[in-house]
Amino acid sequence: MSAPRMLTGDRPTGRLHLGHYVGSIANRVKLHQRYESFFIIADLHMLTTKNTREDIEQVSRNAREMVTDILAAGVDPARATFYLQSAIPEVGDLNTLFQNLVTVPRLERVPSIKDMARDAGKEEIPYGLLGYPVLQAADILSVKGQVVPVGKDNAAHVEVTREIARRFNHLYGEVFPVPELISSETPTLVGTDGQGKMNKSRGNAIALSDDPAAVRRKVMGMYTDPNRVRADVPGTVEGNPVFAYHDVFNPDRGQVEELKARYRAGRVGDVEVKEKLAVALNRFLDPIRERRARFEADSGLVDQLIVEGTERTRAEVRRTLVEVRRAMGLTSAYSQVRRRAERHRKAVATPA
């Protein structure tokens, strides 16, 4: 490999939002210049919680939206390989082999699995969701990813990948790198309703593609200090989503600290604090919107990037699978049977 490899990506369930940005995309933008970067459109992972025909029919459109968002955030298409997970069936072969290198109790200890099931409204955990980290290991190791930028929720998943890589190497020889986790500086962004992390399905997200009016509307409806009924009542800054967003997205630190001091003293209303947040967010999003418009204007470009990236990635995964089967002895097992069958065929065909 000419350069260390990075594997990252998202499930194609819709447009990306500010939570995705702080959780992983900001790191991707910085890191993709240093690494050979693979961006997975993880539609097989999507099936663990969204698997109706209607969900699947939306994959191609959502894939385009997702890739466009990532490019708009600042990823250079010349330095990134985007690929559709379901178009590479060899990853499923690796997933099958890796399933034998991890136990059910180990997977049940991954904290985010139960959270994902709950968020999807599932009373019981599907087999595929329990095995989510194993398929993720197949994704990462199939391209021999060495760096995985992750948010807080996925850190435990990638730790399973590291364990599987070490276990495989111990049993069958050094084939895989043990990937390094790179966590974001802001691992979780609370939703606009103050109820858990930002999530499209909860309707508490600000999309990277939202226009200025939509951003302002969502900000003005944000949850603040519930005990503050008037502007002259001292308010709480800590745990207040509006100030959490100011801390992340408002580069004017003097303004933020002044607003916090006035809020604590009961000398500023929620409306002013939110108005200034809306301005800061729209300034942050303006360059992203401009880049998105340029990519959207080039019809078919994103589709071409996905197709070319998928073909390139499948070739890489095929090479990895050959190496894995050879290391495990699976190739030689079938070769021995085939040679014996060939000798038998010749013996039957040749009269004594």
Automatic annotation (TrEMBL):
Residues binding ATP are R11, P12, T13, G19, H20, G151, K152, D153, L189
Q: Where in the cell is it found?
A: Cytoplasm
Which residue numbers does the motif 'HIGH' region cover? 12-20
- Look up the record and report any one GO term of the cellular component aspect: cytosol
Which biological process annotations from GO are given for this protein?
Answer: tryptophanyl-tRNA aminoacylation
- Enzyme nomenclature, EC number: 6.1.1.2
One Pfam annotation, family name? Answer: tRNA-synt_1b
Is this entry keyworded Phosphoprotein?
no
MF terms from GO for this chain are: ATP binding; tryptophan-tRNA ligase activity
Q: Any idea which UniProt keywords this protein has?
A: Aminoacyl-tRNA synthetase, ATP-binding, Cytoplasm, Ligase, Nucleotide-binding, Protein biosynthesis
Its EC top class is ligase
Please name the PANTHER family in this protein's record.
TRYPTOPHAN--TRNA LIGASE, MITOCHONDRIAL (PTHR43766:SF1)
User: Subunit comment for this entry?
Assistant: Homodimer.
Protein task: Catalyzes the attachment of tryptophan to tRNA(Trp).
Q: Which family does it belong to?
A: Belongs to the class-I aminoacyl-tRNA synthetase family.
Name under which the protein is recorded: Tryptophan--tRNA ligase
